[in-house]
Amino acid sequence: MAKTLPKTDVVIVGVGWAGGIIAAELTKSGLNVVGLERGKERKTEDYFMVHDELRYGLRYELMQDLSKDTVTFRSTEKIRALPMRSYGSFLLGEGLGGAGVHWNGQTYRFLPYDFQIRTKTIERYGKSKIPDGMTIQDWGLTYDEMEPYYDKFEKLTGISGEPNPLGGKRSADYPTPPMKKSPALSMFSDAASKLKLHPYMMPSANLSEAYTNPDGISRAACQYCAFCERFGCEYGAKADPVVTVLPVALKTGKFEIRTHSHVRRILHQGGKATGVMYTDVTTGEELVQPADIVVVTSYVFNNVKLMLMSGLGKPYDPASGTGVIGRNYAYQVLKGNAAGFFDDKQFNTYAGAGSLGVTLDDYNGDNFDHTDLKFIHGGSISLSQTGMRPIANNPVPGGTASWGAAFKANSVKYANRFLSVGGQGSCMPFRHHFLDLDPTYKDAYGDPLVRLTFDFEEQDRQLALYLSGKCAEIMKEMGASHIDQLKELGPYEITTYQSTHNTGGVVMGASPDTSAVNTYLQMWDAENVFVVGASAFPHNSGYNPTDTVGALAFRAAEGIFKYRQKGGSLV
Predict the structure, then answer these.
(1) Among 549, 551, 33, 41, which residue's Cα sits nearest to residue 297?
(2) Active-site residue among 262, 433, 482, 501?
(3) Where is the Glucose-methanol-choline oxidoreductase N-terminal domain positioned along the sequence (predicted)?
(4) Cα separation of 257 and 297, whole Å?
(5) Residue ranges of domains in the chain
(6) pLDDT score, position 254
(7) Annotation says 51 is catalytic
(8) Rounded CA gap, 385 and 357, in Å?
């Protein structure tokens, strides 16, 4: 029988960006908070002088152990799903700080179009522009309502950048200046400007200069070592929860972190949660943590799994299109790119930072006319210099043999003469893309694995080809001697890395018929349960999701405090 612990005001499931922000905000307001993290403790000192590409980049030191918990995948309901046994398409973080430790730091705001995507698409093009089966919906709030929370997250993290000329209005500039512009980035910016596009420096959570945030947390500037994605930052220059929000929450004396604590159920009665049941992974002991408020802030797949395993919210049924838990899963279209090889120029592409780059949004959102195009939305286009670490990178022009003298010669010749312009495409939800519980496979604790049903659609194929063509135009203007670009987007492959930008499954909205949570991320079906993270996105935009996750976490924290004071539904 599970042991019951003393009650707390708030229990948080997963201590990453969302959990850390909420813990800091609530403890500053006087609430007692327990944070349950199934991974181990982490600190900056763990990464001192550890630039180890093999350990972290290729053997996934910071990622979830797939032998204990993974997902199963199928492209359609007609075939059986099988477990993802080795990492490929996306990387699932685990441990204190979550994916906020090993992210690149690219911190974009979503466009105003994103938050009212269905309304704005119909207004401009008519209902017929939305294909059968596409389940886009408005988010229930506008960009203008989100803007103050974006500003809070960017000041918390010290984002270095310059305003997006095609983005939403800002109430303030970024708190720190843009990163350094390398020769390659200057080439991209000049070429884009000649094509009458609107390039701007990528918003970066890798600090361009030393910075002290509103909570008094000071961090050093980025050293451009290029060990960001899949790595922790030894300088603390890359914003992550461990060096920003968690110290603030701990300083109050009202926050307790319990690592190695795998939450398996939300306990509830009479339409309200009473706490959570979790397993201490070091002993196998089952424990119950009672709480007045339960906040679920783990990764997308685990947020969905916890709802389904706990019987909270109606599970999504793709046959009828009803239900909300597991609905509107979306990913990202990252295949629209152009690789350029230069005979007369060399670049130091082994130096860089996770969010060192130049971006343009001329083909993102609804910033361009879609009337004659067979897709909606779009994607950002960037040249980023994140660091081409030598084990994982060996660029050669298309048509080069994969072995022998020509391969060796081109490997040497183009090692420092290669650049890539990439499109990060949005991903729209479809009725037959969803998450549910696998009927066959279980995790190490005997609970079903999450099952992912997803494939690229004609929308994605058309978008990828369009972005690839635009990337090639820019690369040509940059003067590349040889350009390789996408010619066809094939089926979705879970075995090849693309991005960790999974979204949806516990989506937000204005109606309980099409959403699981309201705009404060409070569950419609359990007023003292808040589910926070990219699981709330009704679709995925042409950007990295973290800025929007952080902004929503600040809004959710505000909602939790309001609920604590008044109770009931917040909308």
Answers:
(1) 549
(2) 501
(3) 221-329
(4) 14
(5) 3-566
(6) 98
(7) no
(8) 6
